[in-house]
Amino acid sequence: MTKFGVVVGSIRENSYSAGVANAIVAGLPSDAEVTFLNIADLPLYNQDYDENSPEAYTKFREEVASQDAIIFVTPEHNRSIPAALKNALDVASRPWGENLWAGKPALVASQSISGMGGMLANHVLRHSLVFLDMPAMAQPELYIGSTADLADDKGQITNEDTKAFLANAGKQFAEFAARF
C-alpha cells in the first residue's frame, strides 16, 4: 500500500484546488492511504526556529516524512505559487541537510479560473521540486483552466470529462510512484 500525501496550495474554504485534488485522488488504487497535509497553520519559515522548531513544524515534518509520494495541487497567485505552499516546501526541507521531500515522487497539478490553468504556477513549483530532489511525473500535464465553470459552489469538480481526466491522472501517478 502506498501512502499518498496531498498538498493543496490554496488554503481558502471550498477551494477549486481542493476539488481538483479530490478528483485526482479518486483515481488512486482503492488500497491507497491518502492524507491531506494541512499547510494553513504553519508559521512562516524562519531559520531561527531550526534549533527549537514550533510544534506545527514538527507535526508537518513528521507527516511529510511518513508519505511515499506527494500530490501537489496549486492555484496561481501573481504568476507564481501561493505563499502558504512555498512556506510548506521550506518548512519540510529545513534545517539545511534535512530535506524530507527528497526522493518522493510528485504529481503537480495547477488550476485557475482563467483559461491558462495556472501554467506558470505549475512550472514555478516544478523548479522548486527539482532542487528538492523530487522526481515529478511529466505527463499528463495538469493545467486545469476555467475551474469556476467546472466546479460547484463547494469547489468540487462536477464536469464529468474533467473528473475522468483527473482520475486517470491519479491512476497514472500511482503507477509512476510505484517505480520508486
UniProtKB/TrEMBL annotation:
Transmembrane residue ranges: none
NADPH-dependent FMN reductase-like domain boundaries: 3-147
Single GO MF annotation: oxidoreductase activity
GO cellular component assignments: cytosol
Domain of life according to the entry: Bacteria
Protein name, entry field: NAD(P)H-dependent oxidoreductase
